Amino acid sequence: MTSPANTNLSTLGEFGLISRIASASKQGAGVITGIGDDAAITALTPGMQLLTSTDMLLEDVHFRRAWHDPYRLGRKSLAVNISDIAAMGGIPRWALLSLAIPAGLPLDFLDDFVRGFLTMSEEHGVSLVGGDTCASRSGVVISVTIMGEQFPERILRRSGARPGDDIWVTGTLGDAALGLKLLEKQLPLPEGEGRGEGERNFLISRLLDPTPRAAAGLALAESALVTAMIDISDGLLSDFGHIAGQSHVGGLIRIAELPLSAPFRACSVHFPELRYDSALTGGEDYELCFTASPANRKIISDCMKKCGIEATAVGIVTSLSGVRAVHEDGSPYHTKMNGFKHF
Amino acid sequence: MTSPANTNLSTLGEFGLISRIASASKQGAGVITGIGDDAAITALTPGMQLLTSTDMLLEDVHFRRAWHDPYRLGRKSLAVNISDIAAMGGIPRWALLSLAIPAGLPLDFLDDFVRGFLTMSEEHGVSLVGGDTCASRSGVVISVTIMGEQFPERILRRSGARPGDDIWVTGTLGDAALGLKLLEKQLPLPEGEGRGEGERNFLISRLLDPTPRAAAGLALAESALVTAMIDISDGLLSDFGHIAGQSHVGGLIRIAELPLSAPFRACSVHFPELRYDSALTGGEDYELCFTASPANRKIISDCMKKCGIEATAVGIVTSLSGVRAVHEDGSPYHTKMNGFKHF
Q1: pTM recorded for the entire structure
Q2: Does B158 sit within 8 Å of A36, measured CB to CB?
Q3: What is the 3-state secondary structure (H, E, C) of chain A?
């Protein structure tokens, strides 16, 4: 997909845009008919159930064009949806992409966006099978629906956590929240010779180009050791709170155990409150949070390492309701920040 | 779902809104887990394939709040998606609803919208199983994904039309286009005592509250007599053009055969050009267009009557490519209007 310099959407038209996207997308497992009819036709693996989720991203609400290059925006649009399938222990399969496009948006923006979207889709074996395109009178609107599948007995829900279970998280927490603070210029880079740029790029990349933990989620589902799972999109306290609510339990999170990346540590070294608050309440890391019996701690840790990722036990499920963060001595840690509120 | 007069979205919050919608929705066939986890879990009927489609509706692009009451807007948001499943001969099953909501939108608007959406869903046995809600900095954005199912041998595609087949349409054409002209005050009401209001309401209702032809689409799929099908969202010429393109055929549409409603005839009586152009190129009627051998004309007509709808053979599939409208004497009819263009 390359375009002459002056091509824009008006000259290309809606059907031109759709065939442009369709011709660039590859069709993988289970696709009977992709883009081009009234509905896509796909076939599930016999015995598996269907998993579906959808996310909408609005310009100047969820992303800014000044900060987010179209390639990484395309990747993220699909990544956040793949993350939802990962959180169920499912296999991501097919996606629908709807775009509302302001007049005058350069075709290069769209080409880069679609290239990013399709790169992410190929990395995870997801086929783009349909969608919708229309004009927007304000900003870019992106709506993605993902479909995945899994055998019923392997699907992991938010309910199922039991008192005494470990609370686990994959990867590191708070990186995306610090990345946002760096973009907003609310946080200085760490001082010292030649420092800062690498850390800055890592943290911002965690925000703009998150990696969905699809392989880890699937491995955990296949291990049959996990009692509940969710992805961390709104912050650990808030998202574990959903597990706690639907499992009718509570939880203690030990702040000393929170997994923090080296760039996160470097950038937050002079801001101890920001550190724990970002790790506890910062959204958009798209790591997995799950619960499992402490008896399986080593198996789970090894299982995650085989997926190329560290997982960390950060707390314990309690029979008492409520989710609390605690210091090493057990005294409560009170956050100043809250999870992202939409309204 | 009733709300105190001063309740708004800020006091309700995102999770309050979601649980409000979830508590009002009923769960039908194949739903394992609906709203409330990272993804919905549903089970297809064994042997059937999955049909998926999605549509995005933007305020001031696809609808105006001044014209479209929220109840009928909710109905239409789902109806246009059910229409896509109908056009494949599928059984509509599950839907995802994403809403971007401007600050200050009255909660009553949302309640009426959701009530309309859920009424349409109950009429067609569709379960609302998930979605997304977020803030909008401009107008209301609605994105709906629908999932349906059907046995592979019954699914009807746009390809498959054969030269010599009849071209059929269900219901009447052009009503929604005239309804829009009435709203835009580009068309006067017919003259005469006590006339006009009924016609006006019918035509506007066809635009604001279209009826998806789900039962008819399903009956046609089960009849095994139909060679290709599509729904008419952009206008007959444009939409049959997709059948023609994907079937590698052409078609002749006889304008004298176009099915026109009595209100349409009354309102267009003094505007003969507008009449045929609206019926040929007016979008949003959401009727079905399909092709079948002339040998099956009576069976098909009877089959549609059993579904409570008239179907009309309006033309013939040709081996010569291109879609043309013709007068009774075979001379070409040239339209002045074109199908809806998004860009």
Answers
A1: 0.93
A2: yes
A3: CCCCCCCEHHHHHHHHHHHHHHHHCCCCCCEEECECECCEEECCCCCCEEEEEEEEEEECCCECCCCCCHHHHHHHHHHHHHHHHHHCCCEEEEEEEEEEEECCCEHHHHHHHHHHHHHHHHHCCCEEEEEEEEEECCCCEEEEEEEEEECHHHCCCCCCCCCCCEEEEECCCCHHHHHHHHHCCCCCCCCCCCCCHHHHHHHHHHHHCCCCCHHHHHHHHHHCCEEEEEEECCCHHHHHHHHHHHHCCEEEEEHHHCCCCHHHHHHHCCCHHHHHHHHHHCCCCCEEEEEECHHHHHHHHHHHHHCCCCEEEEEEEECCCEEEEECCCCCEECCCCCCCCCC
